[in-house]
Fold this sequence. Notes:
Radius of gyration: 18 Å
CATH superfamily: Vaccinia Virus protein VP39
Helix content: 10-25%
CATH architecture: 3-Layer(aba) Sandwich
Shape: globular
Bound molecules: S-adenosylmethionine
Strand content: 15-25%
Structural class: alpha/beta
Number of helices: 7
Amino acid sequence: MKGPDRTPAPGHVSAHVAVPAAVPAAVAVPAAVAVPAAVAVPAAVPGSARYPSSTVPELQLRNDDYRRPLATALERLGVGPGWRCADVGAGSGDVSIALAAIVGREGRVYAVDSDPAARDEVAAAAAAAGEAQVIAVTQVAEELVLPETVELAFCRFLLLHVLDPAAVLARMAGLLAPGGHLVAQEPITTAGRVGGTALSMPGARHPDVGALLPGLVGGAGLVLLDAWAEAPAGAGPGPVASYLEDLTGVDPGDDAVVLPPLVTVIARRPS
Ligand SMILES: C[S@@+](CC[C@H](N)C(=O)[O-])C[C@H]1O[C@@H](n2cnc3c(N)ncnc32)[C@H](O)[C@@H]1O
C-alpha cells in the first residue's frame, strides 16, 4: 500500500457531519453538508492496494487516486532536473520520492513532517528507491525553516489538519526563491458523496479547506496562477471503491462514489 497514514487515528470515524472550522459563518452552507453522512472519513489518505491504478510514469505514483491533478500541476510548471522542492506534511513520502525521481541528482527534495516516524519512513523509502537526494526533516509546518530556498513548495492533504492554514501557507511562501512556485492540494471533504450522501471527516480541523484555498494564497504574498478542483469518481468494484473502503472501512458496493474533490492551486512568488 503506497499512501501515507493508512491507519485511521482513533476517534476519526463518526456518523456526524463536521462543520468545517475554516468556513466563515457568513458563508451559506450547502444543504447537502447539513445532511448526516452515512460514511465518515478518517483523517488519512490511502491509495488503493487492491486495484492499483495505472502508473503515471513521470510520477511513479501507482495506487494514488489523486495523482492526476498532481501530474497536471507539475507538468504545467515544468518541474524537472535540478529543482529544489519542499514537500510539507510529506507523510510516508510517496510524493517526495516521486519528485526526487523528477529533479534527479542535481535537485533535492525536503520531506517535512511533524511526525518523527514519518522521517524514518521517508528515509527508508527513499533509500529503497535509490533517491539519495530526499532529505527527511521533522518540523511542524507552522515553524517551517529550511537551510535554503526552493523552487517548489508543495503540500497535499496537509492544511486540513493544521491549526492555521493561512499561517502555514505563509511559511511555505517564505521558503520560495523569487519566482518560485507553490502547489497546494486540499480537499472539500463534504463535497464527496457515497450513494448521494455527503462525506465528513470529524478528525480533521478544516475538512473543507480546499474551498478556501484559492483565496488564501494571496494572503501569503503569492500570485495565483491557476486553480481547479478534481474528484475521482466511480461505481462498483474498482480503484475508487477500494480507496473509499481503505479510508472508511465501508464497502460502497455498487453505490456511486465521488471522492472528496481536491482543489489544486498553483501560485508564484513575485520575482
Ligand atoms: C494525510 S497525510 C498527507 C501525506 C502526503 N502529503 C500525501 O498527500 O500523501 C498528512 C500529513 O501531515 C502531517 N502533519 C499534520 N499536521 C502537521 C503540521 N502541523 N506540520 C507538519 N506536518 C503535519 C501528518 O503527520 C501527516 O503525515
